[in-house]
Amino acid sequence: MRYTLFGESHGPAIGIVLQGVPPGLYLDMDFIASEMARRAPGASALSSSRSERDVVRVLSGVFEGKASGSPLCGLIENTDARSHDYAATRWLARPGHADYAAHLRYKGFEDYRGGGHFSGRLTAPLVFAGAVAKLALRGRGIEVFAHIASIAGIEDASLDLASPDAGRLRDVGRGPFPVLDEARGDAMRQAILEARAAGDSVGGAIQCLVLGLPAGLGSPDFDENVESLIARHVFSIPAVKALEFGTGKAFASMRGSQANDSFVPSRPEGGPVTATNNNGGLNGGITNGMPVAFTVTIKPTPSIALEQDTVDMRSGQAARIAISGRHDPCIVPRAVPVVEAAAALAVSELFGVWL
Amino acid sequence: MRYTLFGESHGPAIGIVLQGVPPGLYLDMDFIASEMARRAPGASALSSSRSERDVVRVLSGVFEGKASGSPLCGLIENTDARSHDYAATRWLARPGHADYAAHLRYKGFEDYRGGGHFSGRLTAPLVFAGAVAKLALRGRGIEVFAHIASIAGIEDASLDLASPDAGRLRDVGRGPFPVLDEARGDAMRQAILEARAAGDSVGGAIQCLVLGLPAGLGSPDFDENVESLIARHVFSIPAVKALEFGTGKAFASMRGSQANDSFVPSRPEGGPVTATNNNGGLNGGITNGMPVAFTVTIKPTPSIALEQDTVDMRSGQAARIAISGRHDPCIVPRAVPVVEAAAALAVSELFGVWL
Amino acid sequence: MRYTLFGESHGPAIGIVLQGVPPGLYLDMDFIASEMARRAPGASALSSSRSERDVVRVLSGVFEGKASGSPLCGLIENTDARSHDYAATRWLARPGHADYAAHLRYKGFEDYRGGGHFSGRLTAPLVFAGAVAKLALRGRGIEVFAHIASIAGIEDASLDLASPDAGRLRDVGRGPFPVLDEARGDAMRQAILEARAAGDSVGGAIQCLVLGLPAGLGSPDFDENVESLIARHVFSIPAVKALEFGTGKAFASMRGSQANDSFVPSRPEGGPVTATNNNGGLNGGITNGMPVAFTVTIKPTPSIALEQDTVDMRSGQAARIAISGRHDPCIVPRAVPVVEAAAALAVSELFGVWL
Amino acid sequence: MRYTLFGESHGPAIGIVLQGVPPGLYLDMDFIASEMARRAPGASALSSSRSERDVVRVLSGVFEGKASGSPLCGLIENTDARSHDYAATRWLARPGHADYAAHLRYKGFEDYRGGGHFSGRLTAPLVFAGAVAKLALRGRGIEVFAHIASIAGIEDASLDLASPDAGRLRDVGRGPFPVLDEARGDAMRQAILEARAAGDSVGGAIQCLVLGLPAGLGSPDFDENVESLIARHVFSIPAVKALEFGTGKAFASMRGSQANDSFVPSRPEGGPVTATNNNGGLNGGITNGMPVAFTVTIKPTPSIALEQDTVDMRSGQAARIAISGRHDPCIVPRAVPVVEAAAALAVSELFGVWL
């Protein structure tokens, strides 16, 4: 399953073309809508006031409710594009945004309104594609879950990566603010509100698990290794700045005897399992049958009301910029389904379609 | 510039084919040999006792000392392959290694001796390819540096990512144990020796900088974005388990007002620069003209002398394994040129070859 | 420039996503509409009675009339989809069509109506993409032309491939039935009408030239060689069954002394040129500065009114099928802009976008 | 299965890296050697006097005689490289060769000796890779055959593409000059000897069949369609200038009623078959279960003893060139295993390796 994203925040529509969807896959539009709703703005008091419902119109690749196997195009109309909001800051490079990099890359021809093709809005078609991938994976007994690992330095409870509780993950995942520990979730929400009150924003992290992947998928070789595959997908999500597999960064201060996942002969019918899962289900770029686990860091929303230093890209002069209003002070909760989508799409690439 | 690695630890030879090397590039074999020496085992008391000199024989793609533009194959003979070392543990899955994953992936036909195609030895041709890429980048004024960011929890001094001192990085990079702060380097070495004495190993982290990259390279789109490109390359290095751009994981507990890199009009002839470089030189998947900076976490060497639990892959029975001798208790110092090589190769992909 | 096609003949819309369009390219919508009109059905008494105007709605990648450099999606609504036409023959594999192959490939889930994703209608977005590519190539002084080389065994006049008359090709290309020799064109039209009267169809061939390509583009290596690149694109056009470069099949009965294109020092400022152009502007997979010339064979339209033997795919029983009415008895004239589009897209891949 | 070729005619060695070889595949080195011998020069009085035995040394990817699943590198030393032969004509662009195109592409840094990377000698590693692919396909009941379709205008007997005699093809393929009709083969040989006596060369064509491919492999989409896949591979063979599927170019003068392959319910257990096989086993880019058949045109060897016009690339002055001695007056017989190899590799790409 491969995808091609298109669209800009303030153009007529955004969308995605998915290739390699297995023919016969039932496109459960209720499930898809529920996934879209998890990412959509306006779901809570914490998020952007832009209120688009993100209804996906499937233009191709589905026949009588099921995937036909041909390229599947999902289209989302932009219904709340207020382009007059952006003209005033046309030439001011917003700190933390891609305005300046894009200006050079696209030689001044980029659609600058609302971030254009760089807008977080482009994660909506990604969630659609992820929902299709999840439906395909579900048929193979594979599930993808994610929770908020931290916001503003407040960490969620930690998961046992070797034997996570799928039922609990499923329940947690249903809510708009998926945390394992509700008390810590309250603290996170409080931190978000405080940041917003200060005209500021906060960052965080998301942990994602893929359960049910068989052992033996992937390769140590460049472009087939599962870490590379997942990395390619998650770093395509705006605002992701770090990626850790399993124990991740903590490996740096561990000893081998702690870090190694020893094998135990626990499965009656299957192969050995590991007692711990520091490696996040991957050895040598190949799945080892344990849950695949990774964590991404999401930087704070760069759009903040506080005034910042910048430069006018036309004149080269110093300037000040404050970005008004409609932005999420923390995109981490809404990014949860996006990270899941990237994981689902990455993992789908491990399966050939033809034979 | 693209590459294809081949070879196994205990086969006759390992090597790499490089495509897209710019015709006319002078292949400075002294520089290449010095890069190979940085990675080679046996350079210090701290490393593996396997002592292969890793001489690269260039079989193609070079004519009269310069790249011809055709595929360039570099071959390294395996001269110290003692296969009898490995037969005893044929069926025991070494914890933290790919043995079990590979066994399933390759259906029992994998070359298990010394890790086979999964061996860290495969990083030798990668360093060769990286050296070629560095020579090509140098012609464009681009340099790649790395230092040991931490070992066993001991952190090196931190770098100013917005205006690093290239001269100092160049000096530091020449040594076999590249750290900014020698006192901390001593402490790291001490920790390595302690781990070795305990039959154990330690992990660490490497920070890499690419200086001189022009702004405007890359794309937000999947597979062209610079984060994805670098990620794909570094996760192909065995033992890399985390990747952070710029400030990386620390973004998770920052506010937007701290995290954003404000713009200042400092370059007389060029565009704006940023006062800080938390984003590691990348916005929206595109270079912004600041140093590209990333950090990778290297897990502790999984081969340790301490006895560990494992499973016999043939019988499914529990067993114990202790891995004797020749392994580095810490591969971080030798991984420094490997990470640089991956960065050089990734960045080379940003430049088209034809026009 | 790369593309992703989507859509089915009887779905809501068909379209294409184009990546790598150079930012700043003015999207001349009049030119694009004129290209679309060349392919559209209903242009003459000779073609299908399906009458869709094929208006392209650009959904992304264009800002203020110019390409922004982001993925460009062009959408064409299906306004004349009469699905009731096709239900009767649901299970009958039409000879010469992909029905049976698709039935196995997509396991019975394919959209069978009007050929679905296999429909010749999918060439409409291809012509749109080709028009964009032509606009980009024109800025580099590169032009693409094609004419009908033969229909029903009647051959057009032959072109001097070493020094074709660009002005004449430009004029010829403007008409709905592009031939060099109008008398032979009349004979071709007559043959088409006769075939139609007989309930049958005819095949033909199209010769395409790319003028203005600089020498030195391409590579002998797999996937970069220009013959492979063009082949990949033209064989994606339904009904193309043969591809010849330059003198093509006639090489088989030539001697080397006839076949070789000798070099002559004719260009004052440039390099040598060849006296003949049997090689179609390509040696070793690389452009040599001469016109790139190739010819494709288009098989007769498989949809014919004459009754043919077939099999019911559900029951496995023998059956008879006659395909009524709206089909072109010869698609060669309408395929001319499609072949040009494939050539323009293939050649566009030779140019890097970034530097 | 994907491949990367490397090497030059007069360098130390040429070779290939094969990725995706199925683990466990027994590497029958006798079969491989017999395939290499079919292509090797010096096999008959008709071919080049260069006499290299083309022994392949397998450097990686094979363990205990079987493919390990890791990248497989096959290396062939160049033992008969007489570079002094070529220095005299360093700056003369040989007509019909890539010298001039390569000179521009590689900016004068190409290895010009004996054609360098463009040499027909690079087809040796391709035949090796093809032999590996054939071994893999044989395990699935798929066989690849080719015969000389014509030389110097003399055509071999024609094959029934709908039900070819596999046994006879197998027998024919064993000989050094594979034709169906020996009398016509004699006439071809006579034509070759006449051309050689005249200091000239002749071209020809090769027809290739793939038997046993299941129906339903491929896709109409760009890059997955079987015609595109085969085209990409065969146009990577030097001297191939045309490619026809099934009836090929003859489609241009046929009517639909003749061209269409009607379906008949002949297989007891399988699906329908076609009564004829004009489409060469492919509809809409997908296999239909019939033999996949294609024909390639091989241009006459450009190296001829007759004097030809050329240009000195350094001075730009007109010159004359006659190419002495060791070249085949007709490479068609030796190209037969090369075309088979390309077909085997192309078809291997249709099968996923993992699941």
Give your account of this protein's structure.
4 copies of one chain form a homotetramer. The first copy, chain A, is an alpha+beta fold. In chain A, 25% of the residues lie in helices and 21% in strands. Chain A has helices at 29-39, 99-105, 123-138, 166-174, 182-197, 226-234, 256-259, 332-348; strands spanning 2-7, 13-19, 56-58, 62-63, 66-67, 72-77, 143-151, 154-155, 204-211, 240-245, 263-264, 273-274, 282-283, 286-287, 292-298, 308-311, 318-321. Chain A has a 5-stranded antiparallel β-sheet. In chain A, strands 1-2-6-3 form a 4-stranded antiparallel β-sheet, with helices on one face. In chain A, helix 1 (29-39) crosses helix 8 and helix 6 crosses helix 8 (332-348). The radius of gyration of chain A is 21 Å and the shape is globular. The mean pLDDT of chain A is 92. At the C-D interface, strand 1, helix 2, helix 6, strand 10 and helix 7 of C face strand 1, helix 2, strand 7, helix 6 and strand 10 of D. Strand 10 of chain A pairs antiparallel with strand 10 (240-245) of chain B.
Which key features would you list for this structure?
four-stranded antiparallel sheet, alpha+beta, homotetramer, five-stranded antiparallel sheet, 355 residues, 8 helices
How is the secondary structure organized here?
The structure is a homotetramer.
Chain A lengths: L1 E6 L5 E7 L9 H11 L16 E3 L3 E2 L2 E2 L4 E6 L21 H7 L17 H16 L4 E9 L2 E2 L10 H9 L7 H16 L6 E8 L14 H9 L5 E6 L10 H4 L3 E2 L8 E2 L7 E2 L2 E2 L4 E7 L9 E4 L6 E4 L10 H17 L7
Antiparallel strand pairs in A: 1-2, 2-6, 3-6, 4-5, 7-8, 7-9, 9-15, 10-15, 11-12, 13-14, 16-17
Helix pairs in contact in A: 1-3, 1-8, 3-8, 6-8
